Each structure stands twice: as C-alpha cells, then as structure tokens.
C-alpha cells in the first residue's frame, strides 16, 4: 500500500510537470520552471530507460505481488495505467514542440 501511494504521488508530480510544460508552450510563458520541468521529465525518462521502461517502484512492487493488472502498483484506472507512458509521452512531445515553437518565434 505504501509503494502504491508513493508511486501515485510521484506520478501526479510528473503529470503536473508535463501539463506545466504544455501550459508554458500554449500561453507563451517560458520560465525557469518550464526548464526545470523539462529537465525533471528528461531525468524520469532516463530512469525509465535504465529500468527497461519500468518505474523502479513497479519493479519493487512486483516483489510483493503476482497481480498481472496494469494498476497493481498505482492508484489509477487500469486502462490509464496500461497506456500511461504512451499518453503522457505524447503530451510531453506536444509540450516540447510548443516550447520550441515559442523559442523560434
């Protein structure tokens, strides 16, 4: 339960960072926080790459559960947990595209 709570809190933090990047690009309000958010999400991507596209908390939770549900380790609906990386990678990419556009104009 503690892993699930921690995982959900960290997920919410990174989703907030991704939405802040999107907001920054849409509103043309690039700030230090925009760059911090971008850096944090890049860092998260490096961690996921290091753990074969799995969150380290998922790897840890797997030791305590044999559930095959996609949301066994996080408080999200199963469908969102299943497609989480795809959805938020696309949103991040759109946000980065908007930030790049704002920098170029």
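Sequence proposed for the structure above (105 residues):
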């Amino acid at each position: 339960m503690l892993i699930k709570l921690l995982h959900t809190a960290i997920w919410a933090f990174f989703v907030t960072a991704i939405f802040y990047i999107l907001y920054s690009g849409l509103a043309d309000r690039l700030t230090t926080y925009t760059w911090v958010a971008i850096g944090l999400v890049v860092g998260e991507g490096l961690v996921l790459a290091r753990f074969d596209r799995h969150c380290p908390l998922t790897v840890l939770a797997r030791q305590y559960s044999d559930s095959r549900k996609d949301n066994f380790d996080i408080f999200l609906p199963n469908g969102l947990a299943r497609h989480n990386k795809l959805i938020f990678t696309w949103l991040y990419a759109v946000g980065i595209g908007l930030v790049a556009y704002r920098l170029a104009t």
